[in-house]
Each structure stands twice: as C-alpha cells, then as structure tokens.
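help with this.
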Amino acid sequence: MTLHAEEAKLNLPDLGSPNRATFSSQAEDTLSLAFLEMIYSQADLVTDPELNDYIRTIGQRLLRHVRTNRHYQFYLINDNNINAFAGPGGIIVLHTGLILAAKNEDEIAAVMAHEIQHVQQEHLSRMFEQGKKGMLTTLGSIVGALIVGSQNPQAGMGIMMGGMALNVQQQLAFSRDHEWEADRTGIDVLAAAGYNPNAMADFFDTLSNRYRNDSKIPEMLLTHPVSTKRLSDSRARARTLSYQRRQQDNTLALAKLRIQNLTGKVDNNDKLSNELACYQTYLNFVQTHKAQHQPPACQSLPKHLWSNIIQLQASKNINHSTWQSLIELHPNNSALLLHYADLLLEQQQSAQVVKLLSANVSRFNESWEFWKRIAQAWNQGGDSTQEAYAMAKAYASVGSLKLALIQIDRAEKSLTNKHPLALKNDILLLKTWLETQQKARENL
C-alpha cells in the first residue's frame, strides 16, 4: 500500500516540542533572520533563477508531507564541496557540489528531507538553547566555519576552535540520536513525496566509500558522521515503506549544466546527448549577451520548460503572449517570472515589471530577487520613494535590518502628496516591524 500524505504526517514524531517552552517561535524567527543575514553577507549565493527554483520545488514537494508552521527557505551556495546544512526557522542551504555529486533527484531530496527534519525535530532549537548566551556569536561562528571551512578546512577549524567561549565544533555536529531522528523521519517524508526511501542511505554510503581513503573528507561527512549502524537502520526503515514513484525527468541533467556554466568548470569528459549539447550551446550564447547575433542554430533542445525559457531569452524578442501563457501553465515557477521581468527591464517597460512581480512576490518565501527587481523598475520609472521602499523590503527579506532601516528612512523622507496614502501606511508598518526586529535581535 502506498504511504499517503496524511499517513506520513500522522506517523512523524514530535520529539522536540517540549523545548518550545523555553525556546519560543519568536526567538527562532529572530535567530532565523540573523542567520540569513550572515549567509547573505558571507556566502557566494547562487542567483541563477532556474537552479534556485529547482531546489525550492523539491523542498516544497517534501514540505507538503510535513506538518509545520515554519516558512522554510532554500538556498544554494556556489561551492564545489559536497555539503548541506540547516539553520533556525527552516533555512536550508545546499552546496552546488552536492547537486553535481548526486546520481539522481532522489538523493538531493533525501539530503533536503534530512535537513528539514533536523529543524522539525527541534534539533537546532535545542542546540541554540543550550548555548543561550551569545547566540549570535555562535551563529556567526557556525556560518563562518561552514563557509570558510569548505574553502580551507584548516581555516574553518581555526574559526571553530579559536578561543571562543562556546565550543562551535560541538554546535556543528548533531548528536547520534539527532542524526537517527532526522534519518528516520526524513525517510518517511521522502517516501510520502514519491522519492525512493533508499536514497538517503545510498547517498551517504556512496560518499563514505568515495572518500574512505581521501585526506580531504567532505564537509557533509564531518557534520553528518556515517556509521554502519546508521546506514543499516536507514535501509531497514526504507524497507518498511512503499511509495508512489514520481516520474523522472531531465531537470537534474540540465541543472548540472547550469552549474558548470556558472562556475566555468565544464567537464569535457562528459559525453552529452545532442539535446544537452544544444542546451549548453544556448547557455553559452545567453551568457555572452550578444544581442546583435542570431541565436544558436541547433534545434534539438530537450523537451523542458527551461528550454522554452532559454529560447525566449536568446531571441531577445518579448513575445508577451508566449511568456504569459507559460506563466499561466507554470504559476509557481519563479524563474519564469524573474526572466520575463529581466527582459521587460531591458526594454524599459518598468510599469509592467512592477505589476508582474508585485502581484506574485507574496507567494514565495525567498523574495530578495523579486524586491530587487521591483526596486530597479521604480528607479527606471523615476520614483525614488517607491524604489527605496522596495529596497527596504528586499533587505528586510534577508535579515539586513540596518540597511533596510536606512532605505525606509529614505522612503519616508521623500514621500510627497502625489504618493498614495497606502504607501505611507506600508512604510510606517515596515519601519515599525524593522525596529521591533532590531530590538529583539539586540536582546538575544
């Protein structure tokens, strides 16, 4: 019998809930914003709309089978090391190296389900509650160690152990019980979402074997230690579950090409099919921004939404009906909205950008790229007040409270009688929220 969504929800234990009495959801939200600001300021975050939409789609597919009030956010760091980590409030971060290492989408989903369950089982809130004093110091050290350590393990270890009052090495690694809980409940979610429940053990086993004799162990294995018992327990749990397998497509193959194009590290040993080679040609063409040249002659693009998008990008011809038809067919695809907005901005059609993105921004938890383009459109249209308000919203969305307050002050001072009363109210509401968040952060 297939494990249905409701059954999956009912079977998930709520092992961490007692700690909510001391670690409030408000405190977690405050920490989440602070954690997000640190990631934005320290990490090389991927802005590629297709890649971000890909991992966020997987994340949302998993979350349909999780009972939660958290507003999860999913991000990619441009880093060839194989790693992923979770932050307070439901921030899940993957490295591009993990995407490249995965044999299939099930393995990516398995890692994401595992990280989601670290949050759901209150492992993070327990961890930070234990080190209540100096939470932001601990957060900053963890982010720094994860990011610097992936580039230079010795430097990362120096950050972790460099005379801090709190032992960040202990904070980075979850306990054996926490790993078991995240595995067990994550596997349930994985199966409920139509992914192979064996993928979690498969991925960690592959990593473990690949780097068994390697001096440079992936960060993933340092922060998520693999044992024989852990793997056998995962496989035993997977055997108890049946699942309605999702139809596989070629999105992961296209995502890998986009990552290689992004990093400039194309694997020339890969023998690409004609369709993938054609997509790679289009990627190179779009990246060079040669508007005066004709699009690539190859026509054997994969049958995929991303192929439709890249053809429209390459043509530089804004066919409004085509874009709008695609958006109607794929209303939850943020890449479509952002690429359409970019082409509209190139054509100085700022009013349409504001209308398009303002109507959709609230539907996405990760709204930085939306608000940034809305601000650009208002700037293009010559309204500095609306531009400042949009930038304040952009900074607020990633926890950059001080920068957001600077922008909201700018918006407030430039308000005129020509602006709608609603804008004045919006500015006041956002300013009040920012000041409240700033005080809450200072009190941590």
